[in-house]
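Second attempt. The first submission of Protein phosphatase had a stray character pasted in from the spreadsheet, which I only caught after the job came back as garbage. Lesson logged: always re-copy from the clean sequence file. Corrected sequence (248 aa) follows.
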Amino acid sequence: MYDFIGDVHGCYDEMHELLLLLGYSRSNDGVWSQRDRKPVFLGDLTDRGPASLQAVEDVAATVLSGNGKYVPGNHCDKLYRFFLGRNIQIKHGLETTVAEWEQLSSSHRSVIKDQFMQLFEQAPLYHALDEGRVYAAHAGLRRIDQGHVSKQIRTFVLYGDITEKKDETGFPVRRDWAKVYDGSAWVIYGHTPVRTTRMLNRTANIDTGCVFGGALTALSYPEMTTTAVHSRQPFQPEKFHTFSEEST
Ligand SMILES: [Mn+2]
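This time the job returned cleanly.
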């Protein structure tokens, strides 16, 4: 009944191909299913890739017409604050989305901005689906946080299990929350690019790094099967995370 789709990051062509492969049909209102299925977009639709705004338009049309679901990612949160006119740093990929947006006519700009802001504002921080048997959350969701929202939970869901420590490239060190997850509900998430879908303790990280030359992956629920399309972007192996299965 659901097809969870990992971080798109402006890879519209791959997203379009994946949705067709999953059997979705297209209309002016995005995609829809003849088999009572819905795509669930796991956030980070934009930044770094070649067609961020097309991805926004398509996902917004699909979700706002009731044919799909969406949860925000950290890049979505930043784009939202950009559209609010906040003083934010335009980097880490946001510069590509802003450049696309600045090339549009002013009327098209306001349409895209309104669509995205509506999509973002109607989205819950995470979705509980199938009567709470499965959660969709951008960077993950701990068992104790399920059913709750707070500032701390928001940070976890958008950015992951980050620590105060920085690695040698200046990014926060991420803890491996999935390794100690003990919930009975599935948590489907993305955010941390991995070479292949990582399933562990009823968690599934399906961000297979499309924008870094990996693949765009969908996880079908309740079948728990994956469908992937190859990326059209250059492969950047250093962008993919490897987990040490020994350390905690
Ligand atoms: Mn992210």
